[in-house]
Amino acid sequence: MRSGWWNGTWLVARRALAEGLASRSWRVVTGLMLLAGLAVVVVPRLLGEEATTYRLAVVGEAPEALTRQLDAAGRAADFQVRVLARSDAAAVEATVRDGDADVGLAGSGQGTTVYVGPDRAGPFPSIVAGAVTAGRTAQALVDAGLTPQQIATVQGTEPPRQVVVGRVDDRARAGVGFAVGIVLYIALLITGIGIATTVATEKATRVSEVLLSVLRPSQLLVGTVVGAGLLSLLQIAALAVPAGGSLLLSHRSDVPASAAPDIALAVLWFLLGLAVYAFVFAALAALVDKVTEVNGAIVPVQMLLIGAYLIAVVVTISSPTSPVSVAASLFPLTSPIVMPVRWASGLVPVWQLVASMVLAVATAVLLARFASLVYRRGVVRTGQRVKLREVLGREHAPSPGLVRPTRGQGSGRV
């Protein structure tokens, strides 16, 4: 396209951006998203300052060898152990049953018993059992006549190498994918509603007719979409930058390093989703006559977004390789929300990601051409709500007083 077309389009985008930045509602929403981003950083630190503490009930004093092994395990896994002394095995069992201790230990040798609460206290029962077994093994080796050096050699034997051949159970990364799906859904929905409202307002106030006297319909359509997209990117940045910066600077983040590409990919999918949905929002809004009719006009696109969101958070999170998840991640009208969530599972072949993106780009181009046709014919018709089949049937005459831009126009001031 000629530079004049882009110049006129950028003028429209800059105008939409300036009006959005000046809007009180936009600034309030952006401020709330910034606070949410800061809360993601601050709240976990406030709630998670203390290390996990497990309570171990024992008869009398805990053996020194046991406490040494538990302390070593605690330093490695970032937890602490508080030992509760009890008079006998019955008292130990009662302490665990009443919930005052997570694990109880009574007896010695072959008669050792480990009492576990109903919630099983995570991995701690297995850690205690392993420490007890290791102590008994060391004592057996001493009784067999081995020297301390020989015992250290036996206990220092490295375990076999583990190779994961199934699904990687990375709950932290899956949690990031879940959050990405929610943010994408909200961002695309808010952006689409904003675009539709802008188009309907300009049509109802006849501003679009004034703009179309010096601009082409495609310039007005694309410029509006670009301006609204930039406003949404600023809001997403307000939410993501504080959290992302904390992840980069923090050494104790619960978010795995493998999730960083997922977050970057989410931004790309937002742009692809914006290209797919935004033009349809604008085209449907061009059919209404009053701003109050916008909500009803864009219901089909909203239902499509809601359907994609439900598939992502209900089906894909729990079963990323199911036929429904695979199909929805490849289908261009649902892939902008489903594929980022599915990709976070770590089970998506690269070719499926590439194919999904290519299909989304191709669909965005086709929808942009379709939306441009609907927008060009619908935005000039005022006085009543226009039906989609009417604008697709044939070219309609412009409304009275509307001047179509000539072939050489398209770069005037907005």
Task: Write a concise synopsis of the structure shown.
The protein contains 16 helices and 4 strands. With about 425 residues, it is mainly alpha-helical. It has a 4-stranded mixed beta sheet with strand order 2-1-3-4, sandwiched between helices.
Describe the model.
This protein is 65% helix and 6% strand. It has helices at residues 3-22, 24-47, 64-77, 89-97, 124-143, 148-155, 171-204, 207-212, 217-249, 260-285, 294-297, 299-316, 323-330, 335-343, 350-378, 388-393, and strands spanning 52-59, 79-86, 103-106, 113-116. The protein has a 4-stranded mixed beta sheet with strand order 2-1-3-4, with helices on both faces.
The low-confidence runs, each spanning 5 or more residues with pLDDT under 50, are 396-414
Q: How are the strands ordered across the major sheet?
A: 2-1-3-4
Overall mean confidence score, pLDDT: 77
Q: What is the count of β-strands?
A: 4
The class by helix and strand makeup works out as mainly alpha
Portion of residues in beta strands equals: 5-15%
* Bulk shape: elongated
H and E order: HHEHEHEEHHHHHHHHHHHH
Kindly report how far apart the N and C termini lie. 20 Å
Main sheet overview: 4 strands, mixed
Helix content: 55-70%
Number of helices: 16
The Cα radius of gyration reads 31 Å
Descriptive tags:
16 helices; 6% strand; disordered C terminus; mainly alpha; 414 residues; 4-stranded mixed beta sheet
